[in-house]
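assembly run, all chains below
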Amino acid sequence: QKEVEQNSGPLSVPEGAIASLNCTYSDRGSQSFFWYRQYSGKSPELIMSIYSNGDKEDGRFTAQLNKASQYVSLLIRDSQPSDSATYLCAVNSAGNKLTFGGGTRVLVKP
Amino acid sequence: DAGVTQSPTHLIKTRGQQVTLRCSPKSGHDTVSWYQQALGQGPQFIFQYYEEEERQRGNFPDRFSGHQFPNYSSELNVNALLLGDSALYLCASSSRVLKNIQYFGAGTRLSVL
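ok done. output:
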């Protein structure tokens, strides 16, 4: 079983719609959770961090964490073509090491 | 405020050669982590440096080694290059005072021929 799992996609979303991305993790001791966006050929860019159960909103992005279910999600509201990218879920468990999922590719169609 | 900087941007080497990649952390950060990202995959943790010592290491062979300097900058060295070492190498910096959130540099793309 992979430590952090994501659906590879592509997740195709019409412009203006909500994109919903999911991530599950195996280490129950994980304390910090992150979503990074990565455009093709570029490096990961941090878009959200979440540490406690519940929702955290930042602009058009909402992260949701459920530690009991070992589940993290990211919602992108009013999706724009510029949101087309790969979204990486990362979990910080032992020490300060990030464990990444394989990423979900999102395509926003005008 | 400069972010995380990495050099070089691209590198082409042949099998068996050695390579050194460099990273300067974001201002105020004292911890540097290195990741390898193969095409189509998520980044894989190589190791992390803090106070000039390797603090954690991922599942990478001893051919991968590193160093951190007093100014917090870091190097990643890979010896006896294999074709499978071709990847994007990412450096991330963080600070224990600032919740250990990691910010990535632009990466070095290494091609081994």
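Chain B has a mean pLDDT of 95.

The two ends of chain B are 37 Å apart (CA to CA).

not gonna interpret more than that til we talk
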